[in-house]
Sequence to fold (173 residues):
Amino acid sequence: MRGNLRAALITTERFTLEPLGVHHAAEMAKALAGTAIYKYIGGQAPTAEELEKRYAAQSVGSSPDGRQTWLNWIIREQGRSIGFVQATVEADGPTSDVAWVVGEEFQGRGAATEAARAMAAWLRHHQPSVRITASIHPENTASASVARHLGLTPTGHFDEDGEEQWDDSLLTA
Fold:
């Protein structure tokens, strides 16, 4: 199933998760503007042109070597783009690393949690044995809260960027 896994439209009570396309770049540049978002994830607000290049690569759906499936969704609220969720599914094992970003203007209302839960449910439906992981900066309490709502727990292991690895091994054990 992994080889055929493609992002599909997902709906929640408040949001639509729309599969990513290059045409989302201009509106997402507006949604991702600001500086606070990048405090823990690094970088800076991308331009529409930068997002066009990024989205062109991501919307292909897999890494050039075929070892990863890339699933990306734009979070829409009443037709307006407010952020994104994404999952990178590894071909050599049922692991999916997930992430979420919601624009500053739209934070604090549970959007990341609702969208990430919907994405995780979709992943688990399409790959029941999937192990879900996330990388979270130790001071990013908002993302830690989202991860907990997904059933993820901190592992105590940190990557080269200083982010702690979280996973759902307690759910799948």
